[in-house]
Amino acid sequence: MNKKNLLDYLENMQEELQEISEKVWNLAEVSGKEEKSSELFRNILTDQGFTLTEVEGKDLANAFYAEYGSGSPVIAVLGEYDALPGLSQEAGTKRSPKGKNAPGHGCGHNLLGTAALGGVLAIKKYIEETGTEGTIRFYGCPEEETLVGKVKMIREGAFKDCDVALSWHPMNVNSPIETGFLANNSIKFRFSGTSAHAAQSPESGRSALDSVELMNVGANYLREHVIDEARIHYTITNAGGAPNIIPADAESWYFVRAPRRKDVEAITKRLVKVAEGAAMMTETEMEYEIIGGTYEILPNRVLFDLTDKNMQEIDPPSYTEEELQFAEEIQKSLDSDMVEGEIRKFISREDAAQPYQFEGVLSKEDSQVVEVAGSSDSGDVSWVMPMNFFLAATWPLGVPAHSWQATASSISSLGMKGMGYASKIFAGMMYDLLQSQETVDAAKDEFVQRTQNQGYVSPLDQ
Question: What is the CATH number of domain 183-294?
Answer without folding.
Answer: 3.30.70.360
